[in-house]
Protein backbone atom coordinates (compact mmCIF):
# COMPACT_ATOMS: atom_id res chain seq x y z
CA UNK A 1 0.00 0.00 0.00
CA UNK A 2 2.83 2.38 0.97
CA UNK A 3 4.59 1.55 -2.29
CA UNK A 4 1.43 2.08 -4.26
CA UNK A 5 0.93 5.54 -2.69
CA UNK A 6 4.54 6.58 -3.33
CA UNK A 7 4.42 5.39 -6.94
CA UNK A 8 1.10 7.18 -7.52
CA UNK A 9 2.52 10.37 -5.98
CA UNK A 10 5.68 10.19 -8.12
CA UNK A 11 3.61 9.56 -11.25
CA UNK A 12 1.42 12.55 -10.45
CA UNK A 13 4.43 14.78 -9.76
CA UNK A 14 6.16 13.74 -12.97
CA UNK A 15 3.07 14.97 -14.83
CA UNK A 16 3.60 18.50 -13.54
CA UNK A 17 6.37 20.66 -14.90
CA UNK A 18 7.50 23.91 -13.26
CA UNK A 19 7.56 26.87 -15.66
CA UNK A 20 10.73 28.20 -17.27
CA UNK A 21 11.70 28.81 -20.86
CA UNK A 22 11.35 26.33 -22.34
CA UNK A 23 8.53 25.38 -19.99
CA UNK A 24 8.10 21.77 -21.15
CA UNK A 25 11.33 19.84 -20.72
CA UNK A 26 10.42 16.16 -20.45
CA UNK A 27 9.78 15.89 -24.19
CA UNK A 28 10.35 17.98 -27.31
CA UNK A 29 7.42 20.16 -28.37
CA UNK A 30 6.92 22.76 -31.11
CA UNK A 31 4.32 24.98 -32.80
CA UNK A 32 2.30 25.91 -29.69
CA UNK A 33 -1.33 27.00 -30.16
CA UNK A 34 -2.53 28.46 -26.86
CA UNK A 35 -6.24 28.57 -26.03
CA UNK A 36 -8.27 29.48 -22.95
CA UNK A 37 -11.20 27.23 -22.09
CA UNK A 38 -13.08 27.68 -18.80
CA UNK A 39 -10.37 29.73 -17.06
CA UNK A 40 -7.66 27.18 -17.91
CA UNK A 41 -4.99 27.86 -20.48
CA UNK A 42 -4.37 24.90 -22.81
CA UNK A 43 -1.46 24.53 -25.21
CA UNK A 44 -1.70 22.35 -28.32
CA UNK A 45 1.81 21.82 -29.69
CA UNK A 46 3.24 19.34 -32.13
CA UNK A 47 5.53 16.63 -30.76
CA UNK A 48 9.12 16.38 -32.01
CA UNK A 49 10.52 12.87 -31.57
CA UNK A 50 13.49 12.50 -29.18
CA UNK A 51 15.75 11.32 -31.99
CA UNK A 52 14.23 13.30 -34.85
CA UNK A 53 16.41 14.33 -37.76
CA UNK A 54 13.40 15.34 -39.86
CA UNK A 55 9.86 16.58 -39.18
CA UNK A 56 8.69 13.03 -38.54
CA UNK A 57 5.97 13.57 -35.97
CA UNK A 58 3.17 11.13 -35.10
CA UNK A 59 1.03 12.38 -32.24
CA UNK A 60 -0.08 15.40 -30.26
CA UNK A 61 -0.01 15.98 -26.48
CA UNK A 62 -2.05 18.65 -24.68
CA UNK A 63 -0.71 20.74 -21.79
CA UNK A 64 -2.62 22.98 -19.39
CA UNK A 65 -2.05 25.48 -16.59
CA UNK A 66 -4.07 27.75 -14.34
CA UNK A 67 -1.14 29.82 -13.02
CA UNK A 68 1.40 29.97 -15.89
CA UNK A 69 3.86 28.13 -13.63
CA UNK A 70 2.68 24.58 -13.18
CA UNK A 71 1.92 22.69 -16.36
CA UNK A 72 0.09 19.42 -16.68
CA UNK A 73 0.83 17.04 -19.53
CA UNK A 74 -2.50 15.39 -20.38
CA UNK A 75 -0.75 12.84 -22.56
CA UNK A 76 -1.54 11.92 -26.15
CA UNK A 77 -4.73 13.71 -27.24
CA UNK A 78 -4.70 12.41 -30.80
CA UNK A 79 -2.42 10.29 -32.94
CA UNK A 80 -1.89 9.30 -36.56
CA UNK A 81 -2.69 5.75 -35.37
CA UNK A 82 -6.31 6.90 -35.46
CA UNK A 83 -6.19 8.57 -38.86
CA UNK A 84 -7.07 6.08 -41.61
CA UNK A 85 -6.25 8.40 -44.52
CA UNK A 86 -2.75 9.70 -43.57
CA UNK A 87 0.30 8.34 -41.82
CA UNK A 88 2.98 11.00 -41.63
CA UNK A 89 3.86 14.59 -40.67
CA UNK A 90 1.62 15.28 -37.68
CA UNK A 91 2.49 18.96 -37.62
CA UNK A 92 1.21 22.19 -36.03
CA UNK A 93 -2.38 21.82 -34.73
CA UNK A 94 -4.99 24.14 -33.26
CA UNK A 95 -8.15 23.64 -31.20
CA UNK A 96 -11.35 25.57 -30.49
CA UNK A 97 -14.57 25.17 -28.52
CA UNK A 98 -18.05 25.42 -30.01
CA UNK A 99 -21.49 24.22 -28.93
CA UNK A 100 -20.27 21.87 -26.22
CA UNK A 101 -17.48 20.27 -28.25
CA UNK A 102 -13.77 20.84 -28.89
CA UNK A 103 -12.53 20.80 -32.49
CA UNK A 104 -8.91 19.84 -33.09
CA UNK A 105 -7.54 20.85 -36.52
CA UNK A 106 -4.36 19.11 -37.61
CA UNK A 107 -2.19 19.10 -40.74
CA UNK A 108 -0.77 15.91 -42.23
CA UNK A 109 1.47 14.99 -45.13
CA UNK A 110 2.22 18.64 -45.88
CA UNK A 111 -1.00 19.00 -47.86
CA UNK A 112 -4.12 18.07 -45.90
CA UNK A 113 -6.01 19.39 -42.89
CA UNK A 114 -8.08 17.06 -40.74
CA UNK A 115 -10.47 17.75 -37.88
CA UNK A 116 -11.07 15.62 -34.80
CA UNK A 117 -13.69 16.18 -32.11
CA UNK A 118 -13.90 15.59 -28.36
CA UNK A 119 -16.21 16.42 -25.47
CA UNK A 120 -13.25 17.83 -23.52
CA UNK A 121 -10.20 19.98 -24.35
CA UNK A 122 -7.58 17.32 -23.70
CA UNK A 123 -9.07 14.57 -25.82
CA UNK A 124 -9.03 11.86 -26.71
CA UNK A 125 -10.21 13.29 -30.05
CA UNK A 126 -12.00 11.30 -32.75
CA UNK A 127 -12.00 11.81 -36.50
CA UNK A 128 -15.68 12.15 -37.56
CA UNK A 129 -15.02 12.45 -41.31
CA UNK A 130 -12.62 9.58 -42.00
CA UNK A 131 -11.09 11.86 -44.63
CA UNK A 132 -9.42 15.27 -44.81
CA UNK A 133 -11.55 18.36 -44.16
CA UNK A 134 -9.60 20.05 -46.96
CA UNK A 135 -6.61 19.15 -49.11
CA UNK A 136 -4.77 20.89 -51.90
CA UNK A 137 -6.51 18.82 -54.59
CA UNK A 138 -10.01 19.28 -53.23
CA UNK A 139 -9.68 23.01 -52.88
CA UNK A 140 -9.98 23.70 -56.60
CA UNK A 141 -7.45 26.51 -56.40
CA UNK A 142 -4.31 26.29 -58.50
CA UNK A 143 -0.95 27.11 -56.98
CA UNK A 144 -1.98 27.97 -53.45
CA UNK A 145 0.79 25.74 -52.14
CA UNK A 146 0.61 23.41 -49.21
CA UNK A 147 -2.09 23.32 -46.60
CA UNK A 148 -0.22 23.26 -43.30
CA UNK A 149 -0.46 25.07 -39.95
CA UNK A 150 -4.25 25.40 -39.49
CA UNK A 151 -5.31 28.30 -37.26
CA UNK A 152 -8.98 28.53 -36.30
CA UNK A 153 -10.80 31.72 -35.36
CA UNK A 154 -14.44 32.39 -34.40
CA UNK A 155 -15.53 35.98 -34.91
CA UNK A 156 -17.94 37.83 -32.60
CA UNK A 157 -20.78 37.24 -35.11
CA UNK A 158 -20.26 33.47 -34.78
CA UNK A 159 -18.62 32.91 -38.19
CA UNK A 160 -15.70 30.50 -37.89
CA UNK A 161 -12.65 30.71 -40.16
CA UNK A 162 -9.79 28.32 -40.74
CA UNK A 163 -6.51 29.79 -42.00
CA UNK A 164 -3.71 27.63 -43.37
CA UNK A 165 -0.86 27.57 -45.83
CA UNK A 166 2.76 27.91 -46.75
CA UNK A 167 3.89 30.82 -48.94
CA UNK A 168 0.21 31.68 -49.53
CA UNK A 169 -2.31 32.49 -46.77
CA UNK A 170 -5.51 30.53 -47.47
CA UNK A 171 -8.73 30.83 -45.48
CA UNK A 172 -12.05 28.99 -45.50
CA UNK A 173 -15.33 29.80 -43.80
CA UNK A 174 -16.32 26.85 -41.65
CA UNK A 175 -19.96 25.85 -41.41
CA UNK A 176 -21.77 25.84 -38.07
CA UNK A 177 -20.88 22.13 -37.61
CA UNK A 178 -17.13 23.08 -37.68
CA UNK A 179 -16.32 19.95 -39.72
CA UNK A 180 -17.31 21.24 -43.17
CA UNK A 181 -16.94 24.51 -45.09
CA UNK A 182 -18.73 26.46 -47.79
CA UNK A 183 -16.46 25.17 -50.58
CA UNK A 184 -14.59 28.39 -51.25
CA UNK A 185 -10.89 29.07 -50.56
CA UNK A 186 -9.99 32.73 -49.97
CA UNK A 187 -6.46 33.96 -50.64
CA UNK A 188 -5.48 36.57 -48.07
CA UNK A 189 -3.54 39.62 -49.22
CA UNK A 190 -1.36 42.14 -47.44
CA UNK A 191 1.30 40.07 -45.64
CA UNK A 192 4.98 40.83 -46.10
CA UNK A 193 7.41 37.96 -46.78
CA UNK A 194 4.87 35.33 -45.59
CA UNK A 195 6.20 31.81 -45.12
CA UNK A 196 4.02 29.77 -42.69
CA UNK A 197 2.59 29.48 -39.14
CA UNK A 198 -0.48 31.72 -39.40
CA UNK A 199 -2.22 32.94 -36.25
CA UNK A 200 -5.37 35.06 -36.18
CA UNK A 201 -6.66 37.02 -33.21
CA UNK A 202 -8.87 40.02 -32.57
CA UNK A 203 -8.13 42.95 -30.25
CA UNK A 204 -10.26 46.08 -29.83
CA UNK A 205 -12.26 45.27 -32.98
CA UNK A 206 -9.22 44.82 -35.23
CA UNK A 207 -8.04 41.57 -36.84
CA UNK A 208 -4.39 40.63 -36.37
CA UNK A 209 -2.81 38.09 -38.71
CA UNK A 210 0.64 37.06 -37.51
CA UNK A 211 2.98 34.56 -39.12
CA UNK A 212 6.52 33.27 -39.63
CA UNK A 213 8.19 35.22 -42.43
CA UNK A 214 10.77 33.86 -44.86
CA UNK A 215 13.27 36.03 -42.96
CA UNK A 216 12.65 33.76 -39.92
CA UNK A 217 11.00 36.45 -37.81
CA UNK A 218 7.39 36.51 -36.63
CA UNK A 219 5.66 39.41 -38.38
CA UNK A 220 2.10 40.71 -38.25
CA UNK A 221 -0.45 42.73 -40.18
CA UNK A 222 -3.84 44.22 -39.32
CA UNK A 223 -7.24 44.61 -40.97
CA UNK A 224 -10.85 45.60 -40.31
CA UNK A 225 -11.95 42.35 -41.97
CA UNK A 226 -11.03 38.74 -41.10
CA UNK A 227 -10.44 38.00 -44.79
CA UNK A 228 -8.40 41.16 -45.34
CA UNK A 229 -6.90 42.86 -47.15
CA UNK A 230 -4.33 43.30 -44.36
CA UNK A 231 -1.79 46.04 -43.79
CA UNK A 232 1.70 44.98 -42.80
CA UNK A 233 2.78 46.36 -39.40
CA UNK A 234 6.12 44.86 -38.37
CA UNK A 235 8.20 42.24 -36.58
CA UNK A 236 7.00 40.92 -33.20
CA UNK A 237 9.47 38.10 -32.50
CA UNK A 238 13.06 37.72 -33.69
CA UNK A 239 14.35 34.64 -35.48
CA UNK A 240 14.89 31.72 -33.11
CA UNK A 241 17.75 29.20 -32.91
CA UNK A 242 15.39 26.41 -34.07
CA UNK A 243 15.40 26.83 -37.84
CA UNK A 244 11.62 27.34 -37.77
CA UNK A 245 9.68 30.00 -35.95
CA UNK A 246 6.05 29.44 -34.93
CA UNK A 247 3.86 31.25 -32.40
CA UNK A 248 0.39 31.95 -31.02
CA UNK A 249 -1.07 34.92 -29.16
CA UNK A 250 -3.59 34.66 -26.33
CA UNK A 251 -5.02 36.68 -23.44
CA UNK A 252 -5.19 34.91 -20.09
CA UNK A 253 -6.36 36.46 -16.82
CA UNK A 254 -5.91 40.00 -18.19
CA UNK A 255 -2.38 39.50 -19.58
CA UNK A 256 -1.49 38.91 -23.23
CA UNK A 257 1.12 36.25 -24.06
CA UNK A 258 3.02 35.04 -27.07
CA UNK A 259 3.84 31.31 -27.22
CA UNK A 260 6.66 30.21 -29.52
CA UNK A 261 9.43 27.61 -29.70
CA UNK A 262 13.21 27.46 -29.71
CA UNK A 263 15.90 24.75 -29.53
CA UNK A 264 17.59 25.71 -26.26
CA UNK A 265 16.76 22.36 -24.66
CA UNK A 266 18.18 20.45 -27.61
CA UNK A 267 21.47 22.37 -27.42
CA UNK A 268 21.57 21.87 -23.64
CA UNK A 269 20.95 18.13 -23.99
CA UNK A 270 23.47 17.88 -26.82
CA UNK A 271 26.52 19.95 -25.87
CA UNK A 272 28.39 18.23 -28.71
CA UNK A 273 26.18 20.14 -31.15
CA UNK A 274 27.48 23.62 -31.56
CA UNK A 275 24.88 26.39 -31.55
CA UNK A 276 26.63 27.94 -34.48
CA UNK A 277 24.75 31.14 -35.06
CA UNK A 278 22.86 31.71 -31.85
CA UNK A 279 19.91 33.85 -31.05
CA UNK A 280 18.20 35.58 -33.93
CA UNK A 281 20.99 35.12 -36.43
CA UNK A 282 20.54 34.49 -40.13
CA UNK A 283 21.39 30.97 -41.26
CA UNK A 284 20.91 29.27 -37.88
CA UNK A 285 21.09 25.46 -37.89
CA UNK A 286 17.89 23.46 -38.26
CA UNK A 287 17.41 21.07 -35.34
CA UNK A 288 14.20 19.08 -35.46
CA UNK A 289 13.93 18.95 -31.68
CA UNK A 290 12.25 22.08 -30.44
CA UNK A 291 10.71 23.24 -27.15
CA UNK A 292 7.82 25.54 -26.40
CA UNK A 293 8.21 28.86 -24.56
CA UNK A 294 6.09 31.87 -23.70
CA UNK A 295 6.59 35.53 -22.87
CA UNK A 296 4.37 38.51 -22.20
CA UNK A 297 3.11 40.56 -25.12
CA UNK A 298 2.14 44.23 -24.98
CA UNK A 299 0.17 46.54 -27.27
CA UNK A 300 0.89 50.19 -27.89
CA UNK A 301 -1.91 52.71 -27.40
CA UNK A 302 -2.60 52.78 -31.15
CA UNK A 303 -3.17 49.00 -31.18
CA UNK A 304 0.16 48.06 -32.71
CA UNK A 305 2.12 45.27 -30.99
CA UNK A 306 5.46 45.74 -29.25
CA UNK A 307 8.19 43.31 -30.16
CA UNK A 308 8.29 40.40 -27.69
CA UNK A 309 11.57 39.94 -25.85
CA UNK A 310 12.33 36.21 -25.51
CA UNK A 311 13.45 35.31 -21.99
CA UNK A 312 15.64 32.32 -21.15
O1 LIG B 1 6.55 21.50 -37.05
C1 LIG B 1 6.57 21.30 -38.44
C2 LIG B 1 6.57 22.62 -39.17
O2 LIG B 1 7.66 23.41 -38.72
C3 LIG B 1 5.37 23.47 -38.92
O3 LIG B 1 4.27 23.11 -39.67
C4 LIG B 1 5.90 24.81 -39.26
O4 LIG B 1 5.12 25.89 -38.85
C5 LIG B 1 7.27 24.77 -38.63
O5 LIG B 1 7.24 25.15 -37.29
TrEMBL record:
Q: Does Cell membrane count among this protein's keywords? A: no
Q: What's in the keyword line of the UniProt record?
A: Carbohydrate metabolism, Glycosidase, Hydrolase, Polysaccharide degradation, Signal, Xylan degradation
* GO biological process per UniProt: xylan catabolic process
Q: Which Pfam families match?
A: Glyco_hydro_43 (PF04616)
Q: Which InterPro entries match?
A: Glyco_hydro_43, Glyco_hydro_beta-prop_sf, Glycosyl_Hydrlase_43_Enz
Annotated signal sequence range? 1-19
Any one GO MF term held by the record is: hydrolase activity, hydrolyzing O-glycosyl compounds
* UniProt-annotated catalytic positions: 31 (proton acceptor), 196 (proton donor)
Q: Where is this site: Important for catalytic activity, responsible for pKa modulation of the active site Glu and correct orientation of both the proton donor and substrate?
A: 149
Q: Say if the entry is tagged with keyword Repeat.
A: no
Instruction: Give the similarity note.
Output: Belongs to the glycosyl hydrolase 43 family.
Please report the name of this protein according to its UniProt entry: Family 43 glycosylhydrolase
- Organism from which the protein derives: Plebeiibacterium sediminum
Amino acid sequence: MKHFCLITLLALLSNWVIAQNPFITHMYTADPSARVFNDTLFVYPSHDQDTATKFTMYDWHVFSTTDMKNWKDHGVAFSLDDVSWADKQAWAPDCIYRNGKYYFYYPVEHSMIGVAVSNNPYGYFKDPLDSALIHTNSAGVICNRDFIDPAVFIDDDGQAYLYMGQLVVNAIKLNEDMISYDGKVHIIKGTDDFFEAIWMHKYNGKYYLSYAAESGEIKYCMSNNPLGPFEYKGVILPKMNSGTNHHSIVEYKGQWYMFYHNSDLYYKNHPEVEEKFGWGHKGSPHPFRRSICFDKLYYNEDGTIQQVIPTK
